[in-house]
Amino acid sequence: MSTSKVKLLAHASILIEADGKRILTDPWFFGTVFNDGWELSPKPSLEDIKSDIKDIDIIWISHEHPDHLHFPTLKWIAEFIEKDVEIYFQENNSFKVFGALKKLGYQSFVSMPHLSKIPITSNVKLACYAHRHLDSSLAVFIKDNFWLLDVNDTELNENDIKIIKNEFGKPTVLYNQFSIAGSNGIETSLRSDSVTVLDKMRQHHKSLSAKISVPIASFVRFSRYDNAYMNDYVNTVFDAKNIFQESNLQLVLQKIGGDYLEWEDINEVPLNLLEIDADGQSFFANEIVAEDDTYDYKVIAQKEVKKVIEDRVSDWQKVTNKIVLKFLKLKPVFFRVVDWDNEIWKVDFLKNTFSKACGTNEFDISIASQPLWQAFKTPFGIQTLGVSGRYKLAQEFDCVPKKWKKIRIFSSLHNAEIYLSISGLFSRQMFLWLWARRKGMISQILQQLRRFQRN
Questions:
Q1: Pair (116, 246) in one structural domain
Q2: Are 391 and 371 in contact, with CB atoms under 8 Å apart?
Q3: Residues 447, 451, 455, CA angle at the centre, nearest 5°?
């Protein structure tokens, strides 16, 4: 069997080679994401990537966030790829991802059941560990030995780790997120959020008894005037390196677009670990100069924002049981729209109205008109707002107000086509999905509830 190896291409995208198969993960190679709030940093060479991936066999997508499922990049790949590539994606309650990729020209799709090993050669198997209704991690096995776990930005909890160890064993290498990926709207929480990410990364390594970890999934810059402050709180790869060294753990810095990490024995460290790490340290020591902001900050007309908000709320109401909607007690949210002369506008989710609030200067969220419009324009919009960080809560809040938490959860479920209705919650498809995800799902829901209580 040939040498097994991994190359870091960009952000969360790695190229895995094992037993003659070439697997590309989470390709985002150009452009901005999350309503233009993120850009790649450093930016990869498209010419080099094109040469690297022209004969790939599989593209694995971890989840629907556009820094992992980036349609412009996937369209670009489809235009020059030399063979029929298989798309691997977690099995869930919807087929919308495969449907969208068919429109780009992809024809072969593999739905990956939670925890099931799928052979791709006689020696290599892939498995997916699905997390909540969105994220997933990729496990790679060679001759039934657990070689690699691409955690990316999956927020694995202690129970998830226990399940992975029981089902799969101990991986040799982890590829894991090392910095923040969004904001809850409260700037003062960002420093502790950054520390939490590093602690999680270290704990994953220790709990899974990995031999090495490689930092990925945080090679971005917050790129607009209304979220650039977040760059002051990001972790560097050297922050991750230091915290691993403090615990006598092995973190390898892999240069973006650099050489492969190569394994002769996948149960041990790579043959060229020291050379790759030295090259990575030299690469990341070079300061990246931020480009001038030439972005066109458009002011969206009030009538346009009103229409998209009321249309979105109407969509929510149509698929939500009226009793459930009443039980949720969705209270109005007040927005200070900074490019409408700081006017205060109110969204009443029960009456489905967006109107100017008279006689008050109090607000919940400060935001420009374009991010507000974008937040309701698409089903994924409110999640995009949180990840982009292009807003701030009023200074009086030291945690996210309950009424905004409810909207975030509600919109996230709707985007995942999990509708709070009898037909939605008790459909055969939903039951089968929940049953397949029974290992880990309860602890993940509790994890999310605790997270919302803290924030």
A1: yes
A2: yes
A3: 175
d(CA 440, CA 238) in angstroms, rounded, equals 32
> How big is the chain by its Cα radius of gyration, in Å?
22
Same structural domain for residues 37 and 186? yes
Backbone angles phi and psi of 48, in degrees to 5:
-65, -40
Q: Are residues 84 and 190 in the same domain?
A: yes
Alpha helices in 39-185 (DSSP H): 46-53, 71-80, 96-102, 158-167
The two tokens of residue 371 are 């991010």
Three-state SS for 359? coil
DSSP string, 148-207: EEEEET----HHHHHHHHHHT---SEEEEE-S-----S-GGGHHHHHHHHHHHHHHHHHH
In this structure, what CATH number is given to the domain that contains residue 351?
Answer: 3.30.1050
* Residue 296, in any domain of the structure: no
Q: What is the extent of the structural domain holding 178?
A: 4-285
d(CA 387, CA 31): 16
Q: Is the bond preceding 44 in cis, omega lying within 30 degrees of 0?
A: no
Give the integer Cα–Cα distance in Å for 380 and 1: 43
Return the SS3 of 311.
helix
Total structural domains within the chain: 2
Phi, psi of 348 (to 5 degrees): -100, 105
- Tell me the C-alpha distance between 390 and 384, whole Å: 9
263 & 165 share domain: yes
Of 424, 432, 401, 393, whose CA–CA distance to 325 is shortest?
424
**Sequence-distant contacts of 451-455: CB under 8 A, at least 24 apart:** 452/400, 452/405, 452/409, 454/399, 455/184, 455/186, 455/189, 455/399, 455/400, 455/405
pLDDT in tens, the chain (455 residues): 689 999 999 999 999 999 999 999 999 999 999 999 999 999 999 999 999 999 999 999 999 999 999 999 999 999 999 889 999 999 988 889 999 999 999 999 999 999 999 999 999 999 999 998 789 999 999 999 999 999 999 999 999 999 999 999 999 999 999 999 999 999 999 999 999 999 999 999 999 999 999 999 999 999 999 999 999 999 999 999 999 999 999 999 999 999 999 999 999 999 999 999 999 999 999 977 777 788 889 999 999 999 999 999 999 999 999 998 888 899 999 999 999 999 999 999 999 999 999 989 999 999 999 999 999 999 999 999 999 999 999 999 999 999 999 999 999 989 888 888 877 777 777 777 777 777 877 777 666 666 656 56
